Amino acid sequence: MNFIDEKGRLYSAIFECKKTKGVNGEKSLSGTIYTNDQLLHGIGRGWRIVFEGETYCLTYLNPIDEGTRIVVEFDAVHEFFFDMQKSVVHRLLNGSNTAERYLQHIFKGSGYEYRLEVNIPAFKKENFGLKNRLTLFKDFVSSTGVEFSINGRVVRILDKVGTNLSTIVKKGFNLNELHIEKDTGSFITYMKGYGAFKDPENPSQGRLEVEYLSPLSKIYGKLEGDPVVDERYTQVEHLLSRIKKEVDSSYGVSVDIDMEDLTKAGYNYDQPHEGDYIMAINKDLGFEQKVRILSYTTSYDTEGQIIDHDISCGSLNLMDQTRISDASWKNQIENSIEQAKSIANFALISADGKAITYYGLSIPTGNKFHKGDIWYKEIGEEKVLYIWNGTEWWPLVDKSVLEETKRLAEQAKLAGEDSKRTGEEIKRKSLEMNQEFQRYETDLIALKKENILREQQFNSITYEILKDKEEIQRHKNEINSTFNELYTQLDQTFTQFSAQDMKTETLVQQTQVNIEQLKTTTGQLEENYISLMKTKADLEEQVSLVKRSSEEMTTQFGTFKQTMVGQLETISELQQDASTIKKTISQLKTDSSGTKAQISQLEQTQNQFKQTILDQITGYHSEQQQLANRIALMVQKGEVIARLNIEAGKTLIQNKKIFLDADTVYFSGKAFIPMATIKDLLVGSAEIRDLAVTTGKIANASIDTAKIKDLAVSNAKLGNISADKITFGELNGAKARITNIDAANISNGFLDNQRIRSNSITADKLAVNAIQVGFNNYSQNLKISPYNLSFYNTNRLSGRITSEGMEFWYGTREIGRIGENAKIGNENIRGVTMNLESTGDYIAWSYRKTKNDDAFTSMLMLDPRGKFTGKAGILMDVDVYLSRVKPNYTNAREFLRFGTIQYSNSYYSSLLNDSGKSGVMFGGAWLYLLHDNKVIPVEDIRKVVYALKGLGRVSIPTSIARDGTVNQWKTITL
Hints:
The protein is an alpha+beta fold. It contains 14 helices and 52 strands.
């Protein structure tokens, strides 16, 4: 496993994880990271994981401090789910559309590809869009009932994922645990369905109604479920299929399996995946059914090795279980000979050229099949072979079953050889026991002889031991008793050895089972021992670390305690210093306040004297300042300021009002008053410069002798002005309006044309070219001449209107023209043309996409030399709608036209001949041919071609009699 950060840098680490895959396309990881400090402390948003060639996006992180180390728990999902959830479709799709159209709507621009491998009729949706792509895709899957799988950046969409495997999961072999959940409460055997109304405007006329009664009702009775009410159903077969599926799937079994991976032990079998069908057997629970894997979780250790598999399954529903209750693996193996015979017959029939091959999901339809005809039924991702035996389609054992049979036979052969070796070993041990028994028997004979000799000796010395007769008799009895017991024991031992020989065959049969159990037990004990030793080592290491950490913490605590004592003493000293500083600052503040109070009253230095008085109640503030070159007085209240500044040569008085209370005020020298209102002014002799009287009235005023220079009168009435008094200067017509002027009195100068107003001016009153010259003088962008009107961009010619139309120029380079024109050779054929000169490059029709766009976008362009686009010709960048197209050939029989053809409840874009009976239809991924109003999928042609491809020399019947025999053959090479 590799980790990739948000900048694309790669990291490696030791980890353990679980990978989960499901029939709904689920691919996820969860696990724990143990090493690489840079990874453990830096992992976060935007990180991805590469595992087994697939990329996953992190969705959850949980760093954990375990005391001696940091570990990180994580969850991640396949990048398809993350990327699709973070991308939104900003378009809406409405109405009835094909599955291809919906998938294009979802996947366009997503960076992922899809492969639709199932036929789905068109269906209707409204407002399909404006959501993230993952939500829309889940909506599509739930609406169509399909399943999907993800490989890299390709999404396969199928009716069902997975295959029908021959893998067996059995207790005592590779099954650790099996949990079963049965849903009996929702089981039903009958349901009704209500579809669309016959007349939506008049519901009283009824609606589409169907019903379905399961064959299981004969056993369990009529158990009715809630009806399906959906006005979208208009066809009986579609609604019937829906309620049939609801009834048949109402009772199901959920199975959880903990399976051992025996491939590590050398067993060769197909490893199951999500969607596959496997056989689960637990005879203790009485469970032996074919179940489908819904999700599949594989656990990996830190070395990347598989530990085990946790599988969640859903078994066949009760209806399916009833249909296949008579089938078993034993029947398949027993019938394999007969099926092989059928295969041989099929091969002969196919060699004769009489067999017909069919492909598809559903059973072939027709009234006439030939014995030996072939049907390849597609089940998920596999194909199963069926053959017509004269009355029905008979399934043949597929390749996986034959391989499983072969594997079981090999295992049985190996088990027989092991049993044979075990039997020989037991036989050898039995011979050794027989030899041992013969030695015991020889010893017994010798003992009997020794007893006889002792008896003879006893008789010979009887007279010597008469006194001890009772004791001798007792010893004799003991010897006889010992002899009998020993003989009995030897006889029992011989019987046991005989019985053990009789059990040899039973031991041989049990040997293989014991060996397998010992293998499993030994492996588990070895794993447990290794795990315990590892755990022991880890615990010892942890104890050592804890002990060492405890000692270090004790030492550190002592040092810390001493440091704290020192710091407390330092803090006490700092507090005392701070208290002293605080008192000093307080004293300084007091001294500063007193000084400030004194300064605020009076301030005198060597260079200046300043006095300030402030009244806190009234808000008045006065200030007197005296310097060597200036005396300033100021009184202020709020924003109102009165100021008097006296300098050498200048005095400034500033206030809102200034009152002069005196009998006489004299202004010596030259006084300047910028603006004043004077009442009852008497001026004896004055010189007035730049006098402006705006709205004033001078009544009964008499100016005997006045010198007025630059007088401006804005609004005044002057009567009886003598013209002979105006001796020089210019009278501006824009400022004066004079009526009844005799033109004879205008001797020189000119009249501004802006001020000439007349209802009509006769041509004899105008100079030659007067309008042309005046217009050209007026505008720099438009120039007029007797022959054309020219347009300029600055000083560059850009266009010209002539009697022939509108010309377009770029300076001295002519680009083209638009105007009225005629056909050469027939002047009566007239029209409007757009002409591109040899010095022009292209003609385009363009539009502005939005109001704020800086440039126009070309819709249609003529680029004869390819200077603009790089491709010479006519280029279009918008949708084009054409109705009829006729080839530029005089003998062409019919027009070609574009249209739509309805096929299988969908409409396809088509290129047709004018009659509409033949043409080509275009689907999302498939192509169709229309021949005499009949649709032929190109996919069917492709299947036939690929089925025949590479067969070599093949004989094809060219003439067939009514009885089915072939009259004539033709041999071709494929």
